[in-house]
Amino acid sequence: MPETSTDEKWMRYALSLARRAWGQTHPNPLVGAVIVESGEAVAEGWHRADGGPHAEVVALRALGRTPAKDATLYVTLEPCSTQGRTGACTTAIIEAGIGRVVIGAEDPNPAHVGQGVEVLRAAGIEVLAGVMAADCADLNLIFRHWITRGEPLLAAKIATTAAGAFAPSGGSGTPWVTGPEARADVMRWRQYFPAIGVSANTALADDPRLTVRLEGEAETSPQRFIFDRELKTAGAIDRLKLYTDAHTGQTVVVCTEGLDNAATFKARGITLWELPHPEGYLDWGAFRKRCSVEKIYGVYLEPGPTLSAGLLAQGEVDYLFHYIAPITASDQRHDSQTGPYTLREMREAKLGEDRLQRGWL
């Protein structure tokens, strides 16, 4: 049965349900589900946290009865077909008596992809898959990378002029190059990622908080990384917010092994990740492995021009967020230019006067 505007309408609603757990389900995906009977939503659910019931099960429990003959379950991700910790969602759907299921994105797990659809169809359930698939898949950048690569997603955020010149970040009294809508969007993505990172140069120049500050919500802090190869921030340990604010316990300094001034940080209770730095560069492979051990599934990097150029040149960034301000190079102080890059699954958004281009590198 072909997709209809009604199917898209309810899938869009299921997406809005999934987003209610934005940033709270790692390493599990964001998933929303809604049960519709006679054109009306009669039950809904979303996956709230790792280890909790899946969205389909939440919706079925909320229904609390046998579904009507015309009931359709809309779910943003292909239902799981294996037992896991919470039972197979396909089993719950079949046992509930749902007659039609509309699915957004397929399960990205190579070991499971397509199996949920097959199980449901084998049970006589009408299945329509791929409705708003791109939007549903885009919801789970971190999960998709983790489940297929077995390593954390490293994403970089850069802001440049229209000419591609790196722009000031807004610290130390420097005016922001992007407008309030773009800056609010950055906060939204900070909330999505379990960790955020900056270079030592950015920490010293801008004294950032690296917290999530959304209107109407309490300030929160993800895991915060400072990439400081030689611990040059030691001289500013008494003034930088990352070392002195209420979220200091969330700060980790990534540095070279065996530095003499490491004791300064350890005496203050600041966590160090001492990693190899072959040829003067951070061993990003070692950093990813340490993140995996610590169950940090994604890191949102806000690097300055030097670290950005190095990350892009070395191919160490998996995903890029590029905010572009409509100013020429002569309008604003700027640093080095971004190099050429190609994005897969590129998505664009207009944010006030600015633009966001994002996608897989």
Any overview of this molecule?
The chain is of the alpha/beta class and 361 residues long. The chain is built from twelve helices and 14 strands. Strand 3, helix 3 (89-96) and strand 4 (100-105) form a beta-alpha-beta unit.
Report the major sheet. Answer: 9 strands, mixed
Number of β-strand runs: 14
Helical coverage, percent range:
25-40%
What fraction strand? 15-25%
- Going across the biggest sheet, name each strand in turn: 10-9-8-7-11-6-12-14-13
Overall pLDDT score: 91
Helices, by number, come to 12
Spatial separation of the terminal alpha carbons: 35 Å
| Radius of gyration over all CA atoms, rounded | 23 Å
Q: What is the element string, with H for helices and E for strands?
A: HEEHEHEHEHHEHEHEHEHEHEHEEE
Which term fits the overall shape? elongated
Q: Structural class of the helices, strands and pairings?
A: alpha/beta
Poorly predicted residue ranges: 169-173
Task: Briefly summarize what is shown.
The chain has 361 residues and is α/β, with parallel strands linked by helices. The protein has helices at residues 5-18, 55-63, 89-96, 115-122, 133-138, 141-149, 180-192, 200-206, 241-244, 262-267, 284-293, 305-314, and strands at residues 32-37, 40-46, 72-77, 100-105, 126-129, 153-161, 195-199, 223-227, 251-256, 271-275, 298-301, 319-325, 344-351, 354-360. The strands form 2 sheets. It has a 9-stranded mixed sheet with strand order 10-9-8-7-11-6-12-14-13, sandwiched between helices.
